[in-house]
Amino acid sequence: MATEQYGEIVIAPRVLEKIIAIATAKVDGVHSLENKSVSDSLSKRALGRGVYLRTQEDGQISVDIYLYLEYGVAVPKVAVAIQKAVKTAVYNMADVTLDDVNIHVVGIVTEKTAKPDLKDLFNEDFLND
Q1: Distances (CA, A) of 121 to 17, 28, 50, 54, 95
Q2: Which InterPro entries match (predicted)?
């Protein structure tokens, strides 16, 4: 069966960053995402909040995710769950295959710290660009 092509489809990196961030935040044991530096927090470069995409010259796409986990979780188990969730979400929603999903656990959050609400984590301020 032949598929028809109507034109080119271009997906902005910020869309992939949002898909990755939301898929990550939904995994049990994840508390929140964290930007690598203060300057990332102030710039529009890090719209994915803790999600950094890299595309190699050969077309390979890798992502680095910086996050905090909840106290008491098995770190390797949660990290593998994040990797699977992210790869699946990006492929299902954007038909893009990620070559590497690197997880960077910045810290563990105590039980007393409230988990951020998902809608607060991903304010869509870019709609006003």
Answers
A1: 13, 16, 11, 22, 25
A2: Asp23 (IPR005531)
What is the CA 62 to chain-centroid distance, rounded?
Answer: 11
> DSSP character for 61?
E
φ and ψ of 47, to 5 deg: -65, -25
In which band, very low, low, confident or very high, does the pLDDT at 111 lie, cut at 50, 70 and 90?
confident
Range of 54's domain? 13-128
Q: In the prediction, which pLDDT does 94 show?
A: 94
Of 7, 43, 80, give the one whose Cα is nearest residue 65. 80
Of 111 and 119, the one with more pLDDT: 111
* pLDDT of 83 strictly over 50: yes
The per-residue pLDDT for 59 is 86
53 contacts: CB under 8 Å, gap ≥ 6 = 13, 16, 17, 20, 61, 62, 63
18 close to 119: Cβ distance less than 8 angstroms = no
Q: Residue 25's domain is classified under what CATH number?
A: 3.30.70.1350
Please indicate, yes or no, if residue 5 is contained in any of the structural domains: no
